[in-house]
Amino acid sequence: MTSYTPPHERAREAFLDAVRFDRAGLVPIIAQDAATGEVLMLAWMNRAAVEETLATGRVCYFSRSRGTLWRKGETSGQVQRLVELRLDCDRDSLLALVEQTGVACHTGRRSCFFTAIRDGAVTEIAAPLADPEALYGGAR
Amino acid sequence: MTSYTPPHERAREAFLDAVRFDRAGLVPIIAQDAATGEVLMLAWMNRAAVEETLATGRVCYFSRSRGTLWRKGETSGQVQRLVELRLDCDRDSLLALVEQTGVACHTGRRSCFFTAIRDGAVTEIAAPLADPEALYGGAR
């Protein structure tokens, strides 16, 4: 896997200026496993989160529930290293190709998208790979 | 590729009831190519769009700009057939695995996520595969 080299500030600023944040100052972002193509999660970033992610190569979201920057893996150790950040045609959503350490989902599953209809019922289609209690302890 | 068989109404209703729509009655949805894993686009659905998509197997979004249901491919012919619809752990975002006819992006590119930083500059990393004028004519 190619390691991420932060681009120069001018390129980072040009990218940031291209993003159309919504009225709350946020943009939705998809995290996709760069190696397997698996979609891991959908989260949100504000301008500071995009800035930090581009500058450090470590994915930082904005937690809408806590109202603060959310450095993915800070508590759980399940960090995401950026491979490439992409912007869509309307400039109002982002796609991050990442290297995921461990699991992306707080339930201990690799991906947050584990609920679907199968055999005529709403079903959990993936089992936890890690114990959420071990990942978060009392911190969550 | 497995073809989609609409589940019974009870399962569809259970899935719909599980989705947490935002204050505007919308939920973000990622469309991913079921065969290649490529992330094609991020769009939005309201309850009626989720309902129609599950019932027909043809992906229908909600157009925030037009304020109406948006049957993907209705004008362009670039339809998306549903393979599976998945809900995330927080129940506030969706992932659609789809079979994409032609291109997903209105610019004629396969994916909407074609802008990234490469070689120190914000760059278009994919070229159009289809002529938008041919896809939409004067209809867009």
From TrEMBL, chains A, B:
Gene: hisI
Record's cofactor remark: Binds 1 Mg(2+) ion per subunit. Binds 1 zinc ion per subunit.
EC category: hydrolase
UniProt-listed HAMAP family: HisI (MF_01021)
Keyword Amino-acid biosynthesis: yes
The entry's keywords: Amino-acid biosynthesis, Cytoplasm, Histidine biosynthesis, Hydrolase, Magnesium, Metal-binding, Zinc
EC number, UniProt record: 3.5.4.19
A Pfam family matched in the record: PRA-CH
Pathway linked to the protein: Amino-acid biosynthesis; L-histidine biosynthesis; L-histidine from 5-phospho-alpha-D-ribose 1-diphosphate: step 3/9; Amino-acid biosynthesis; L-histidine biosynthesis; L-histidine from 5-phospho-alpha-D-ribose 1-diphosphate: step 2/9
InterPro entries referenced in this protein's UniProt entry, alphabetically: PRA-CH, PRib_AMP_CycHydrolase_dom
Subunit structure as annotated in this protein's UniProt entry: Homodimer.
UniProt domain Phosphoribosyl-AMP cyclohydrolase: residue ranges: 41-114
NCBIfam families linked to this entry: PRK00051.1
Catalytic activity: 1-(5-phospho-beta-D-ribosyl)-5'-AMP + H2O = 1-(5-phospho-beta-D-ribosyl)-5-[(5-phospho-beta-D-ribosylamino)methylideneamino]imidazole-4-carboxamide; 1-(5-phospho-beta-D-ribosyl)-ATP + H2O = 1-(5-phospho-beta-D-ribosyl)-5'-AMP + diphosphate + H(+)
Functional note: Catalyzes the hydrolysis of the adenine ring of phosphoribosyl-AMP.
GO CC terms: cytoplasm
GO biological process per UniProt: L-histidine biosynthetic process
Compartments where located: Cytoplasm
Residue positions binding Mg(2+): 88, 90, 92
Protein known as: Phosphoribosyl-AMP cyclohydrolase
Family designation: Belongs to the PRA-CH family.
List of residues binding Zn(2+): 89, 105, 112
Organism: Elioraea tepida
Gene Ontology molecular function, alphabetical: magnesium ion binding; phosphoribosyl-AMP cyclohydrolase activity; phosphoribosyl-ATP diphosphatase activity; zinc ion binding
Cofactor(s) listed in the protein's UniProt record: Mg(2+); Zn(2+)
